[in-house]
Amino acid sequence: MVRCNRYSLALLMLSVSAALMLGALSVSAALTVQADKGAYNLGDQIVASYELSGDRDFSGLLKLSLSCTNYSRDFYTVPTNLVAGETQESNVPPLSVSESMLGRCYVDAVAVAYDRSSSENSSSSVFNVTGDVSVAVLVPKTSYLPSQTLELSGIVGKSHLLPADLVITFDNETYSSSVVNNNFAYSIELPESIRSGVHSLGFFVKDSYGNSGSASAEFEVPAVPKRIVNTLSSRNVEPEEQFTVSALIYDQADDLIDSNVKVVVTNPAGNAVFSASNGTGTSIALSFPAGQAPGIYTLASSGKGLTASSQISVEELERIAVAFDNGIVTLKNTGNVEYAKNVDIALAGEKSYLVTVNVNLQPGQAYEADLTNAVSGGQYTVSFPTLDNASSFENVVIDDKRSLFKKASDAFGITGKNVLVTSSGSGRVPARLAPFVLLAIILAVAFYFIKNGKKGRGSGFAKTGGDMDFGSISGGVGSGSSGSVKSETAPPKVEDVEEARVKRILEEKYRQQLARKPEQPKSLRNDPVAQKFVRDMMKEKKFR
Questions:
Q1: Which residues contact 36 (CB under 8 A, 6 or more apart)?
Q2: pLDDT given at position 501
Q3: Which strand (E) or helix (H) includes residue 382?
Q4: How far is CA 432 from the centre of its chain?
Q5: Residues 138 and 168 occupy one common structural domain
Q6: How many Cα atoms within 13 Å fall on the side-chain side of residue 441?
Q7: In this structure, what is the dihedral angle of CA atoms 345, 347, 348, 352, given to the nearest 10 degrees?
Q8: Is residue 36 within 8 Å of 205, Cβ to Cβ?
Q9: Does 244 share its domain with 300?
Q10: Domain assignment of residue 12, yes or no
Q11: Which domain holds residue 334?
């Protein structure tokens, strides 16, 4: 019984001793460790610190090590003695960062008593070791005009303040500067001819340890109109001739600006002739109106606050347009200068004529030549041999509205100075009979006046054959005979002059016949042509 109690007491004492030893180990010390930064760049230093405390005295070794993704190393070991109840804090010597440490890292701390009666472990938070740096750029404005200055600045995000180099790229140009205390500033003067649009800036930072970073920024340059240029298809035109103009607006870089432009054409006096508008680069078709006076005109284009002028010459144009209606030929001056010339009108038919009219027309004026009072009736082809590119009129019918004297003159080949018979038809009096028929007519008229006297003259005597008045006979069409000018002032009529001229011709032929003393025909009563002509003459005088 006594022996059993002794054994129980021994076991109890052994258990108490073991419990005391375990309790001493569990409360001997407390250890913590940490790094000074959350990230490190190449060239930086890791500064670790630890804290050791306990309720009992501690004497042993404290060891720190670095553990990274692909790297681990013990970098600090120190003996330490700690009195119970005290706390020991310490920063260990810096550890330089190297490229082998790149990645995620942490610091381990171990405190082991010399007698191995106690030990403590602790680890820091994870931190990054990297060669990348951040670059933040400040561009004050989003838009800059040519020749303005860019004031650039920025901040480099790096774990240490060691110097770095800065390179800025802009429009294929490179600018170098330095990063001091992780800050930089730089100014760039924009070229005067910088292109419009969005421009990019590149920023590249690098130090001697291998750290690098980059950033970019943008700004816009508006198009500034600098000049406007006129491009004309021709600088010498005629009225109604089409030409084109294209107005181009260029900016500071000589790039085209899309805009609306207005074109105004003014005459030498500065008055607007016409205007048009369109977009830049688009051709505008223009033409001067018919009859536009010749001279130097100014073409001015405007847009985007710019104006450009060009000279364009309207050349002299001498042109006549012809029309035919109901026996009347209309000649109109469609040029831009006075037209003062003779115009030949050729009529080809059974009997052909060449009628010459003298016209004097200002631009826009028209002249009418009445062919019904110039040629015999019939079907003709009317052409204008003295007018270039004039139309001809085929198979037109012309009525004969000539006076009896004109018809008689035509029968004897006598016309006005402006009408020429170019070929005879079958209706003319044969040339061999013409003197006799003419003499018969003169005698008949003389007999008529001697017998009846002249009405409205009182009691006088009739003129002798040599002084006989043949009346007014029209001699065709001329510059004022059967025609008229459609204008403010019509040309003077010369019908009386023409008839007087025909009268003189008839008188001259009569005197010639008397001088020759031709053989008197035995009788004209059997000549139907002469008899008909005499009857017509008598009727004409009766009506007159």
A1: 46, 47, 48, 49
A2: 65
A3: strand 378-383
A4: 77
A5: yes
A6: 31
A7: -110
A8: no
A9: yes
A10: no
A11: 320-423
Distance CA 244, CA 356 (A): 41
CA angle 13, 14, 20 (to 5 degrees): 90
The 10s digit of each residue's pLDDT in 44-89 is 999 999 999 988 899 999 999 999 999 999 999 999 999 998 999 9
Residue 118 has pLDDT above 90, yes or no: no
82, amino acid identity: L
Centroid of chain to Cα 210? 56
Residues 31 and 48 in one domain: yes
Nearest to 247 by CA among 256, 239, 255: 256
Contact 436, 528 (CB under 8 A): no
Residues 305-319: tens digit of each pLDDT: 999 999 999 999 999
- The set of long-range contacts for 161-168, using a CB threshold of 8 Å and a minimum separation of 24, is 162/43, 162/207, 162/208, 162/209, 163/207, 164/133, 164/205, 164/206, 164/207, 164/211, 165/205, 165/206, 165/207, 166/203, 166/204, 166/205, 167/203, 167/204, 167/206, 168/201, 168/202, 168/203, 168/204
**Number of domain units in the chain:** 5
Q: Collect all residues with Cβ–Cβ distance below 8 Å to 21 and sequence separation of at least 6.
A: none
Cα–Cα distance for residue pair 71/106, rounded to 1 Å: 11
Q: What is the average per-residue pLDDT within 444-470?
A: 50
Rounded Cα distance between 366 and 484, Å, is 8
DSSP H/E element including 510: helix 495-516
Mean pLDDT of 104-131: 94
30-35 β-sheet, strand order: 30-35, 48-53, 87-91
345 and 305, same domain (yes or no):
no
**Residue 272 above 50 pLDDT?**
yes
Closest C-alpha to 223, from 145, 337, 286, 277: 145
Token pair belonging to 353: 């004529």
Q: Is 2 inside any structural domain?
A: no
Q: Is residue 8 part of a domain?
A: no
Contact 470, 510 (CB under 8 A): no
**Separation CA 186–CA 112 (nearest Å):** 56
Residue 224 burial class via C-beta count within 10 angstroms: exposed 0-12, middle 13-18, buried 19 and up: middle
Rounding to the nearest 10 degrees, give the CA dihedral for residues 245, 249, 254, 257: -120
Calpha distance 410→414 (Å, rounded): 5
Closest CA to 158 of 308, 44, 263, 249: 44
CA 413, CA 409: separation in Å to the nearest integer?
6
Concatenate the DSSP letters of all residues of 286-324 into one string.
E-PPTTPPPEEEEEEEEETTEEEEEEEEE-----EEEEE
Neighbours of 448 (CB within 10 A): 15
Among 284, 314, 344, the domain boundary falls at 314
444, 515: one domain:
yes
Residues 397 and 377: their CA atoms lie apart, in Å, by 7
- CA 438/CA 444 separation, integer angstroms: 10
What is the pLDDT, as a whole number, of residue 485? Answer: 40
With respect to residue 14, please indicate whether it lies within any of the assigned structural domains.
no
Integer Cα distance of 61 and 432 in angstroms:
166
